[in-house]
Amino acid sequence: MTVRQHRISATLDATVKLSPAKTRMTYLKKFVIFPPMLIAIDIGNTNIKIGLFNKSALKDTLRLATRRDMTADELGIPITDWLSRMKVANEQIESAILCSVVPSVTEQAVEMCQRYLGCIPTIVSSELKLPIKIAVDNPAQLGADRIANAVAGFTKFGGPVIVVDFGTATKFEVVDQAGVYLGGVICPGVETSMAELAKRAAKLFEIKIEPPAKVIGKNTVEALKSGAFYGTIGQVDFILDKIFAETGWGKATIVATGGLVTGIEQYSRHIKLIEPNLTLSGLCEISRAV
Fold this sequence. Notes:
six-stranded mixed beta sheet, 2 domains, single chain, alpha/beta, five-stranded mixed beta sheet, 11 strands, Nucleotidyltransferase, domain 5
């Protein structure tokens, strides 16, 4: 018996002494008017993004800052508050799924799901039943967020598809027309690169990543902004050119996601499609497949 079947059975047991009309209304409120939902959790190096799904529809998202020493309560309390604001009871969360690149936070997220949501989350890995086939040398080393992005790209757009995720690292995931994940590319993210540059160069400093007014900067800030922004655009477009040359594809869907993606479609030769919640959508699709 599934978790949901247990809950339905318990509800019916509790209402057998009520009139048929009241019994029916109790059931409808719990399982139709307020249907079971899925929590998807994407734990990244910089941020934790959480999505609430009703079936395959994303209802809302929550973003928290990642701390490697954060506790289950520091996850559970803001999530409970967030659900409460949407008038969703914790008991309505039927299942949870998470992908993580931060092992210490993974453990706390699992504990949070058990204590606050009453469910054991599915943890994404290459060992799960997936809507795509993984064809890399060592699937166990493939990041869970990269799996989620590849799954989302293929299930949403078909293949061939290339997903570019702009985050702490800039990651490219390549899936062919048959749904075979061929591999990808990983580069330092633009904020990561600029932060490291500021550490190593005494007279330089961190700047906001945004399109500059001009390519040729008239001061240090303008020069840094130009290098960061147009350097990233050039790097991404060049790598996409090389992927097309290597695969022999005449065309493919290219979709961008991640916390630093906004506005890039106005400047890139290749990227015209932006899906900010693509990783969460991939988690939802994996949850439906397992």
